[in-house]
Amino acid sequence: MIQGSDLNFRADQPALDVEGLTVTYGKEPALWNADLRLDRGSLAAVVGPNGAGKSTLLKAALGVVPRVSGRVRVLGEDPARRRRLVAYVPQRTSVDWDFPTSVLDVVLMGTYGQLGWFRRPGRKERALALHSLEQMEMADLAGRQIAELSGGQQQRVFLARALVQDAEVYFMDEPFAGVDAVTEQSIASLMGHLAHRGKTILSVHHDLATVPRYFEHAVLLNRAVQAVGTIKEVFHRGNLDRLYGGRVPAGVPDLAPS
Amino acid sequence: MSAPWVDLDPTLVVVAAGTTTVGAVSGALGCFAYLRRQGLVGDVVSHSALLGVVGAFVLVHAITGSASRSLFILVPGALVAGTAALMLARSVSIRTRLNDDASLGVMLSIFFGGGLFLLRWVQRQSPPIAGHTGLEDYIFGMAAAMTRADLWMIFALGGGALVVLFLMWKELKVFTFDPDFARSQGLPSRLLDTLLMGLLVAGVVIGIQTVGVILMIALLVTPAAAARQWTSSLSTMALLAAAFGAVAGAGGALLSASAASLPTGPVVVLLATTIFLLSLLLAPRRGVIARARARRVLRDVPPRAAGGAS
What we know:
The structure holds two protein chains of two kinds.
Chain A: E1 16-25, E2 28-38, E3 43-47, H1 54-62, E4 69-74, E5 86-89, H2 103-108, H3 112-115, H4 123-135, H5 151-163, E6 169-173, H6 181-196, E7 200-204, H7 211-214, E8 217-222, E9 224-230, H8 231-234, H9 237-243
Parallel strand pairs in A: 3-7, 3-8, 5-6, 6-7
Antiparallel strand pairs in A: 1-2, 1-4, 8-9
Chain B: H1 10-35, H2 39-64, H3 71-95, H4 100-124, H5 137-140, H6 148-167, H7 169-177, H8 179-184, H9 189-230, H10 234-258, H11 264-282, H12 288-300, H13 303-306
Helix pairs in contact in B: 1-6, 1-9, 1-10, 2-3, 2-4, 2-9, 3-4, 3-9, 6-9, 9-10, 9-11, 10-11
């Protein structure tokens, strides 16, 4: 199912290179002339108000929504040619958790791409999936029905499914939303661990207060990318005031003065 | 002393084989319609099939001058009408502010109304079109009219649908559970969506002779809903739904053959509904009784101990 996938990339290529990207749903532009460049090993949060196009940015980078104009490159290639190197963690609430399947089955879906059409996952894929579940401390729940999971466990399953893909670039849509404190910590340390190994993470994040704690880079997005850089460079009161129209929620700590 | 099956009327064997296959195929396919919440889509396809069936009859009569109610003519008609209704509904919901359900509802009304209208027109022709009697049976179904050729058509379309389902199992599963993720893996979602629609149309089209266009939706959704009560594995669910559908189909054929006044289609649907109601009540964990019992256990636990349950 992976067409023309290319596993080779140069180490100096940016993980994600977006130029003049415009995406529309109907007549409303979701993204308008967005530019973004992320180096490999970046651990970046996408922040911005509702309707800023955060999820759309991920989907455009995955090559799953049509672009009106602009260019997207993942590790120097079109997203369609980089599927093997990209993992996607959709919003937890985007699926029906009452679907009749088990934890291990969902994680195995992460191996489908490499298996290709018609082939079924076998022993090797099961071992990989179990290993990913172990990393998320979910191995003892492998046989559990997904309907019986808590929010935090659901998110761990989604992350295990991304891990099994053994990707270079990880796109995550609000992985911290509605999870318990323990899961929040283990997601944060997983992200740090991946970034430390040179993997790139671009994650939509809503809680401004925790951005400096969990991320090294920030992408400030409102239809267009307003700023991108390290937390220190761009995540300050002036930029955030501009991003949220002067209504930055109270309780955002460790903001450097602008 | 002869074994009981030797006494079976060969016509009944054809009918029972047909209704059993129809039940099994729509049970298995219905799981995907059920899980994708597309029951209404199946209903639109089956109701529009009436216009397709009568339209094909009229068209063939106009071209060749002869009237035929062979499934080889009526099935393509139903396929075309069902697909057209779905495509029109989709383009209406994309181009207007009507939502998906409303545009599906509109198409259902237009195509079913059109089918009834055309049927009435055919029936009122003078001189009467020879062979038109029986067309009205597609509204409520007339399994007894099933011929050997019809049975082959059911085997071919139903078997084909099941083979596709088996081959594409993992793709259809991930696409049904998490379409965005499936797309991110490079799966062609448009193609899979069309494929699932096509399978649904095939299942509906072979079923309408048995249960009719109005009750067809019951045969798609009820076995799937019943099976979901018993299992939390998609493959078991599909097998179980196929088995429930087959039992309802076979039972309906045999029951209605044993009592002259029983119509096959409604009996098949009533049997499927009975299986569903029993599943709803009796299934472990999901069943009404099991859940009531679980609630009572929780209530009887002293409040202190219940506090930390997760």
